[in-house]
Amino acid sequence: MKQLTIFICLFFIGLITSAIYPNEYFTWFLEVIPALIGFLVLALTYKKFAFTNFTYFFILLHCIILFIGGHYTYAEVPLFDWIQEVFHQSRNNYDKIGHFAQGFIPAIIIRELFIRKNVIANKSFFNFIVVAVCLAISAAYEWIEWGVSICTGDGGDAFLGTQGYVWDTQSDMLFATFGSISMVIFFSKSHDKSIRNLS
């Protein structure tokens, strides 16, 4: 419980810090709203289903990635401007970190729900289904970005963050797929251990 309280404090510190003179308030709102909705859902369902601290830690990490992207906009995060310059990249690639996390963190959440609720009877398909659900979430998020951009015009361009890259949507989903596969391959044992400790 103490660790979870620290996570909640860090969440609000990150949220408030990101809201101080962001690049643009409309884009900031669009970028941080998933973190706020996620926090609300986790708070409302906590008594019925509390995740492991392992999962909460990575959810917090994802929120911090969103807060940074919201504060600067994904196309203008200073560290990745520097990386772009040093490695002669054609764009600021901070959004790829965000989309990697968009696969990695949902994989942890889905995996824990499936294990603890015993959703998948045939374990042979377990990892495939986890990755497939994460890819579906990533595709749905791309639809949301597209819809917001159409509805808000120029105001949604920073949220869309393509930076003129024609394959941005496809590469975003690819990075989310990499994220979910990486979680399943490299972190499953640690995640299993945290679930066992909880029970």
Summarize the structure in words.
There is one protein chain. The chain has about 200 residues and is mostly helical. Helices cover about 75% and strands about 0% of the residues. It has nine helices and no strands. Helix 2 runs antiparallel to helix 3 and helix 5 crosses helix 6. The model has no long low-confidence stretch (mean pLDDT about 90).
> What's the main sheet like?
none
Global Rg: 17 Å
Total number of beta strands:
0
Structural class based on helices, strands and sheet pairing:
mainly alpha
β-strand amount: under 5%
Helix count from the secondary structure assignment:
9
Detail the poorly predicted runs.
none
Estimate percent helicity.
Answer: over 70%
Give helix and strand order, one letter per element, not per position. HHHHHHHHH
What's the N-to-C terminus distance?
Answer: 15 Å
Mean pLDDT: 92
Shape: globular
Name the features.
single chain; 199 residues; mainly alpha; globular
Give me the secondary-structure topology.
Blueprint: H1 2-18, H2 25-45, H3 53-72, H4 78-86, H5 94-116, H6 126-152, H7 157-160, H8 168-186, H9 188-198
